[in-house]
Amino acid sequence: MKRSVRTGCPYCGTGCGLIAEVENGRVAAVKGDPLHPVNRGATCRKPLALPEALTAPDRATQPLWREALDARWRARTWRQTAAELARRLRDTCARDGPDAIAF
After folding, report:
1. Is 62 within 8 Å of 75 (Cβ atoms)?
2. Kind and range of the H or E run holding 51
3. Are strands 26-32 and 74-75 parallel, antiparallel or unpaired?
4. Please, which residues have CB within 8 angstroms of residue 36's CB and are 6 or more apart in sequence?
5. pLDDT reading at 65 higher than 90
6. What pTM, to 2 d.p., does this model score?
7. Helix, strand, coil shares of the chain as percentages rounded to 5?
8. Mean pLDDT of 75-96
9. What are phi and psi of 50, to 5 degrees?
10. Is the pLDDT of residue 92 over 90?
11. What does the pLDDT look like over 29-47, one tens digit per residue?
12. What is the pLDDT of residue 1?
């Protein structure tokens, strides 16, 4: 079964709209959404490679975490990772102010 799904681009944060062509439960192709007000059908190269990126053999399938820059990456649960990130963001904001955090 083939269908089109309107979605947002996961990359830079501009907010572009995409149309993903889904076939047998997998993204087969991606193009810019002509009805989306941000990009009006245009897109950069990054989202066009999503079908390959989603099935790459080296794609991360779970969060990886390391306690220090010289430590090894270790698998963690999403719950552990999200909680630790939230704690660290709160600590940074309390210590250095809200302008210390940017995405």
Report:
1. yes
2. helix 50-54
3. unpaired
4. 6, 16, 17, 18
5. yes
6. 0.64
7. 30, 25, 45
8. 96
9. -60, -45
10. yes
11. 999 999 999 999 999 999 9
12. 83
Residue type, 82: A
Domains parsed from the chain with CATH numbers: 2-54 (3.30.200.210), 64-98 (no CATH)
Angle at 79 between CA 56 and CA 5, to 5 degrees: 45
Tokens standing for 74? 């270790």
Give the mean pLDDT of the chain: 94
Helix (H) or strand (E) holding 91: helix 78-96
Report angle CA 8, 5, 46 to the nearest 5 degrees: 45
The secondary structure element, H or E, covering residue 20 is: strand 17-23
pLDDT tens column, 42-61? 999 999 999 999 889 998 88
For the chain, helix (H) and strand (E) counts, in that order, are 2, 5
